[in-house]
Amino acid sequence: MADDGMLLNFELGDAPLTSQVKFKGGRWRDRVKAQKSAKEEASGISTQPSKARYDPDRPGKRPRGNDDGGYMGRHNKMPRTGGGGGGGASEIPWVPTHAMKTGLVSSSLFTSNPEFKTKFDDENDKTNDDEPAEPAKPSNAPLSEEAENFHKLGISKRVAQHLATKLEMKAPTAIQKNTIPTLINEDSDAFLQAETGSGKTLAYLLPIVHRIMALSLNEDGTPKKDVKVDRKSGLFAIILAPTRELCKQIAAVLEKVLRCVPWLVCTTVIGGESKHSEKARLRKGVHILIATPGRLTDHLDHTKVLDVGTVRWLVLDEGDRMMEMGFEDDIRMIVGKIRADKLQEKNEEGLVLKGVLPARRVTVLCSATMKMNVQKLGEISLEDAVHITASKSEMEKDAEGSTEMAFTAPAQLKQTAVIVPAKLRLVTLIGLLKSTFARKGSVMKAIVFISCADSVDFHYEVLKDPAPVESPPPPADGAPPKKVDIHIETTVAPASYITSPANTRVMLHKLHGSLAQPVRTATLKSFAECKDPAVLITTDIASRGLDVPAVDLVIEYDPAFAVPDHVHRIGRTARAGRAGKAVLFLLPGSEEGYTSVLAGTITPERYEEVLKKGLASAVNLPANTPNPNSENERQTWMTRAENLQLHFEQRLLAKPGDNEEDDSNPNPFKGPKGKGKGSKFAQKPVPDDPLLVSARQAFRSHIRAYATHVKEERTFFDMTQLHLGHMAKAFGLREAPGGIGGGTSRRTHRPALSAKKNAAASGPAKPSTKKQDHDDDLGVVDEDAARRMKAKMMMMSMNSASEFNLG
């Protein structure tokens, strides 16, 4: 074909041809910034735009929620580059610069974190490691056997020998030494105050048992003639405790003591149990009754066989806790009914009670703290009471008129405060637990305190091994297999992530007030009797009075709602002279000042030190879960922490029935490729993983619980300083879900509403649907919504909710 003679003359210049890049996925704002950065690089305006964006030292406004720069959906793909043709366009998902090297979304755990206010003295730490200080002398240990024993305090020889031989209690503690003679020889009311783990329970139980025994035994232990004490002799003592678990523990201790006097009977009446069976036990007869205030009030109103005319002792254990839980009216009613009945000097069988039992009703109030509500409870129940403490000097000060006593933790308890940024809380907890069980026999039991029941459920599900529990093999001797308690099927399971070659099996337990009473009882029993290393994840329901053997470590993952609650939490370890360790997690910033109001010496520690110890070796990830570890990459504690965080994020984003190798349909809300939602080939939306739903609910409950700290301590726990996006990462979430303050603000244009519709819209928000929750994870909650939510949370925090204390 002949040339038509036309000549095209284009000026291309000397610059090389570059392909135009389009960014897909993530948020619109992030794509615009990425596109702008790409243009600046191409034009040479900025030499290092990507580094400037991710420079952690760059001053500026606080990052928004997700530091990885965008939400990548369920499938993380390698970036695709453009073709070789000049001027061609390519489409790549937007990813941060440091994530393009591996093809994975980096968790960015170690950037954009707030600075510490605490000054760490590394030199002193090294000196302490090289020259360990002499351990402190236990302050709640039993006294010397040569100096004191229970028989010298006035306890009968029969009971003293039983304590020494069967219970291995040869010497009393300081509070027992000061309390037992007073309650045996005098009939006055008493207020017992001593540190946790010092033996307050036996301090009031032993005098009661001794004086009831005196009805049928002489001083030398021989039976009295013509005197018979049986179940029908009457009710002599009532012991009130705030929680069901504490009631059962008191009953367990009392039953061990009563084995030397089997004719004396004790029982419990607590919520969650059958009233019919409780009435049957009361009808048979009981000498000592342990009860919760609410259930005892019910029996006093409706159980006619419950006669309190012979009651000589009323014990209020953990009185401050009962007042905090709202039992003031119940206690007033109980005290009033007991005092209203005339004190009987003989029972129905003619047994003479005068001269042996107290001539008046004696009330004993036990509390570790002297708060205003305790003083109010004392005004309700006590009359001319004697203040008894572990130290004689403190009792002398009280006699002079000073009622203030500085309550301290046990001297042998080692307390540490780990300053952890919000994003690193979960991986730091795992690192701490992993290092705790790294050596066999070093730590047998640990308790992790969390603020609310939803968070307990989430962390239990995350840390437990998802593989089904294998049934135990049958015994080799042909005996019938041991029955498995069905009550602990959902509360006890083998743990993952925190195991080690030394301890390949660590049992995980969960406990909170929303569980049924049989489940709570069975779980606590399993934790106490577990022969393997065990971890209990619980709310404050386990913080009062519980005495679980061999608890070596207490972790306050969420700080207590008040200082007295902190004292009782750490009191679960270092009991009766044993050594113990307590670790408190605090966020950088205002929370660091919280240690100034706590009892005892608390050593601050960097989270890096915990991660270096815990992640010095690889973490054993559960089978059939995402494994982001790279074999070609040199594993350090930092890379292990990032990979572990990424593992949790991918685990939560996995849909039920996902196939990791099949990425042909990355959008769960569309059918096959090319088929829209309205097509007949469109698939139904796949429901979110239950673990993801649990994480969202745990996050919401955690933020609400954070607002319930007591007014005096809100300077340390300031809602306005809480970074919701960073805190979401502690629950494995890449975005902070909405619905915390009662509703979700959406960045969408809505038509104007009439006045009536506006009024209706301002009412209670409806629960969010699954589609809304999915949109929340895509980042539809803007900064204005976050500010409005925080303001609403501050208003809600003015009314503290006790539900978080109970779970």
UniProtKB/TrEMBL annotation:
GO biological process, one term: rRNA processing
Domain Helicase C-terminal intervals: 425-627
Enzyme Commission code(s) on record: 3.6.4.13
Catalytic activity: ATP + H2O = ADP + phosphate + H(+)
Region entry Disordered, spans: 23-94, 115-144, 655-687, 738-784
Keyword Coiled coil: no
Localization, UniProt: Nucleus, Nucleolus
Biased composition (Basic and acidic residues): 27-42, 52-67, 116-129
UniProt entry tagged with the keyword Nucleotide-binding: yes
Molecular function (Gene Ontology), one example: ATP binding
UniProt superkingdom: Eukaryota
One of the record's GO cellular component terms: nucleolus
Keyword terms: ATP-binding, Helicase, Hydrolase, Nucleotide-binding, Nucleus, Ribosome biogenesis, RNA-binding, rRNA processing
Main location: nucleus
Database matches in InterPro entries: DEAD/DEAH_box_helicase_dom, Helicase_ATP-bd, Helicase_C-like, P-loop_NTPase, SPB4-like_CTE
Helicase ATP-binding domain ranges (all copies): 181-388
SMART domains: DEXDc, DUF4217, HELICc
Family: Belongs to the DEAD box helicase family.
Protein function: RNA helicase.
Written domain comment of the UniProt record: The Q motif is unique to and characteristic of the DEAD box family of RNA helicases and controls ATP binding and hydrolysis.
Protein name (record): ATP-dependent RNA helicase
